[in-house]
Amino acid sequence: MSDPILSIRNLTVDLPKGGDRPHAVEALSLDIQPKEIVCIVGESGSGKSITSFTTMGLLPKALTPSSGEVIFDGQDLLKISASEHAKLRGRRMAMIFQEPMSALNPCYTVGNQIEEMFEQHTDLAAAERRARTLRLLQEVHLPEPERIYTSYPHQLSGGQRQRIVIAMALALDPALLIADEPTTALDLSTQAQILHLLKELREHHSAGIMFVTHDFDVVAEIADRVVVMKEGRIVEEGTAEEVLNRPQHPYTRLLIDAVPRRTRVERDSLDGRPELLKVAGLEKTYHVKGNMFRPGRIVHACKNIEFAVRKGETLGIVGESGSGKSTLVKCLIRLEDPDEGAVWVEGTNIAAFSKRALHPYRKMIQIVFQDPYGSLNPRRTIGDQLVEGPVNFGRDRAEAMARARELMKIVRLDPEALNRYPNQFSGGQRQRICIARALMVEPKVLIADEAVSALDVSVQKEVLKLLNEIRDKMGLTVLFITHDLRVAAQVCDNLIVMQQGAIVERGTVDKVFGAPSHPYTQQLLAAQPGQGWDVPDVSKLPPVSAASGVGGVV
Amino acid sequence: MLLYILKRLGLAALVALTVSAISFSLLFLAGDPAISIAGENASSEDIAAITERYGFDRPLPVQYADWLVSAAQGDLGRSWYFDLPTTQIIGDRLGVTMTLGLLAISFALILAIPMGVAAAVRPNSLIDRAALFISVVGQAIPSFWFGLILIVVFSIKLGLVPASGSDSWKHFILPTVVLGYYATPAIMRLTRAGMIEVLSADYIRTARAKGLNPRKVLFKHALRNAVIPVISLAAVQMGFMLGGSIVVESIFALHGAGFLAWESISRNDLPVMQALILVFSMFYILFTFLADVLNAWMDPRLRVG
Prior knowledge:
The structure holds 2 protein chains of 2 kinds.
Chain A lengths: L5 E9 L8 E10 L4 E5 L6 H9 L7 E9 L2 E2 L5 H7 L4 E4 L13 H12 L4 H14 L5 H5 L8 H13 L5 E5 L7 H17 L3 E6 L2 H7 L2 E6 L2 E7 H6 L4 H9 L16 E14 L8 E14 L3 E5 L6 H8 L7 E6 L2 E2 L5 H8 L2 E4 L13 H11 L4 H14 L16 H13 L5 E5 L7 H18 L2 E6 L2 H7 L2 E6 L2 E7 H6 L4 H9 L27
Parallel strand pairs in A: 3-8, 3-9, 6-7, 7-8, 13-18, 13-19, 16-17, 17-18
Antiparallel strand pairs in A: 1-2, 1-4, 4-5, 9-10, 11-12, 11-14, 14-15, 19-20
Chain B lengths: L1 H28 L3 H6 L5 H11 L5 H13 L13 H36 L4 H15 L2 H15 L15 H27 L2 H8 L4 H31 L1 H6 L5 H11 L2 H29 L1 H4 L2
Helix pairs in contact in B: 1-13, 5-6, 5-8, 5-10, 5-13, 6-8, 7-8, 8-10, 9-10, 10-13, 12-13
């Protein structure tokens, strides 16, 4: 093996005093070779991003590396001055970030922002800088480089912006590329393209890539080597093949066990159950207002949507951003008024009901939103927020409180916690509170709108399990809105796939996954990361050896 | 960009029209204008003659249209007190006010923006405390008192600058400081808040990850984004300084348009007041328009769809 590009030895980064643990990263050692993709995997708070920021010299001021070495280009990055570190950034090491939407300065053209790399680090003449920039745009497969060059970030899509950030990172052919969750904020097909691009870059450049992610399917897609982190420590390290198929550490096994399987848990047949919710010919268009100089645009967000869900069924609605699934949900719960069509709830068409007539039906359909942090009022106790719904529908407060206690038990939270405020709960706990809140008014239909997308995989697994349990126990009908096919496959009975406002595919999970008929579904399935990987059944692996079972460094 | 400017221009024209209607109606809000002109001891014949002469008996819309057409031609009526065209009286005084206003806003910007930036780069540092102190003091001190103190210290005790008049550039130093200091706190705090927000933005992290030198990160990437709202605020402040410099002009005996407004009120010279309100409003609209254009030039999200 050649000399590593980056060699981290016993790195410890301190957290500010009073945190839940003393170190963000503890005694971490890691090597990255040229042309190698090393994935650092872990859940939120595992210290994986801190590791990458330390290497880049971009740590927030509150965090300080207290011991260890980060050897790069023959020098210890922890010992060089800030300005020396800045000289390495961009030229010798470059970074790709998670949020392509906000990673570029809105005030300058992307061409200008890429060219800055050459301005800062080289003596190239203006014409040469421009030519190199255009070549980079081509290399990251952006169409019409000339046009893109003069575009501003807000004129480009998320995927395009991420390509710009990648082009920027590649400008000076750095020896080390750090990618911090570069595809997490992107659609499935864009993610597949970006992953493909990164693999291509490994072939054509000699850079070593540190790839930070929480997604084992992405790991399976791209990694040569894997490092698993938990609470600031490395718990397992090895080749991708070893770690993915024969994980040794219990935590790695837990994570891999939580990876959504492609197969569904078998359920009783739904035949003969009554239809609870039925939608027919639903149309919704938005008019984007024009003005005296520009004609308005019409966005057809829902085109002739038609489906039915039986009592106790889970219907998955799958689509990428902009597919119209959110608009559909808003029409179903009448946060938006559909232009045309019918929404039958137990045989009553509520699509054209007035606000007043709608009121009693409101409680029949409840929703759990994506962001567990934003959807609870931070200034009111959980209890207050739970009883608000039933009280609003005329229930006695004490009675509602009793129900709240009961539901807290069902979502496996301590009923005593009703007096507490949302900030005292973790993301997964908050999402369970949101589920409890939705159930307070005893709905018939529960809509989960990307309800697990923001959660770590292990937490995601628990919430999904909980949703299934509640559905079976209470005879709920669930609409499961997601962009993630893997999750949909696990919990849904039937699926509909939406694209540009229309349903392009429908059927049982097995049919949609096994024999997709629409090109778009086929494309989505093909874009799925980690397909070559058969997720091992952790329960059938040999028991954890004593040496690695103690949670220390392997 | 052109489209945007045209749209803003159309909007500005609408605002101007509305303001003109309001300032026209002022004449009638104070009661029958003929009685005001005639004075306290006038006979009913005198009032009738005046009504006849000024055409106050015509329907209001006709009078407004008439007034609007003359205003567009640069005729804003005659002063009741001086019996001279108001435009001539105001024109004589506007130079001083404009000079003072531009100097004061420049002073405020030159003081406030660097301080705001410095305070944002090191929050809670000594610089930040100092900037906060300066801005709190600026908000708390009444400008007439501050003006008098400056006169006592710099004109009377030290004899460095003249205390009153508008004959040379030296006469403008103290009024500029007083009026400019008044506008400083708001601009500085907005700059500071904007910079703190922008400095934590993802694109600043990107700029640092590119290895750009800190000056470039700060001035090219951060300041431009942070200063966009400051431009709008400065335009509003500038408009305010034109009309609101009455106190400062009185203290330093700068006979500008603000001072004229004060004089006209005491003389009950309605046409001059009316014309001043219109002129001030037009400048206000002009500055807001210029700020909009400048903002669009700075922020591509405003100019390219």
